[in-house]
Amino acid sequence: MNELISGGCSCEAVRYSLVGPLNDARSCHCSMCRRIFAAQASVCAEVDAERFQWVKGEDQLTSHVGEQGYGVQFCRHCGSTLSITYQGLIHSLTLGCVDGDPEVAIAQHIFVDSKASWEVIPETATQFDKYPE
Ligand SMILES: [Zn+2]
Ligand SMILES: [Zn+2]
Predict the structure, then answer these.
(1) Residue 3: what pLDDT?
(2) How many A from CA of 79 to the centre of ligand 2?
(3) Which domains can be identified in the chain, with CATH numbers?
């Protein structure tokens, strides 16, 4: 489906839209993702840069770029983590900031062998100890 999908941060300073669908949603349980997203895991879906646009507040984003060229973009006011960039281009979106039902499911749980001791992943979920081959 090529539906318009929207999302934004918790204080609504930053808003975006994209032409769907969202693909390849993954939840990563590695220790870096748990810290970056302050949660049990990251949940992100890749997005095509040509189908994505910031509607409001792009200048309100702050970024942290890691050594491998991946960056995290978050709202400088409320701290919501909205997106991941790779070499400066939008790469994926955090599903937690997408509005409503974007009709996407988590296809893979990755780096499950480093998940937090207190997290229970449903047995029916597709899981990989590390990164899928
Ligand atoms: Zn905000
Ligand atoms: Zn990770």
Answers:
(1) 87
(2) 19
(3) 4-114 (2.170.150.70)
Q: Which ligand is nearest to the CA of 11?
A: 1
Tell me, in angstroms, the distance from the centre of ligand 1 to residue 68's CA.
26
Rounded to the nearest whole angstrom, what is the distance from the C-alpha of residue 130 to the centroid of ligand 2? 9
Residue 41: which of 31, 54, 53 has the closest Cα? 31
| Closest ligand to residue 39's CA | 2
Which H or E element spans position 33?
Answer: helix 31-36
pTM for this predicted structure = 0.91
Q: Name the token pair of 91.
A: 């790469």
Q: What is the pLDDT of residues 68-119, one digit of tens each?
A: 899 999 999 999 999 999 999 999 999 999 999 999 999 999 999 999 999 9
When mean pLDDT is compared across 2-6, 11-15, 108-112, 113-117, the lowest value belongs to 2-6
Cα of 116 vs centre of ligand 2, distance in Å, is: 12
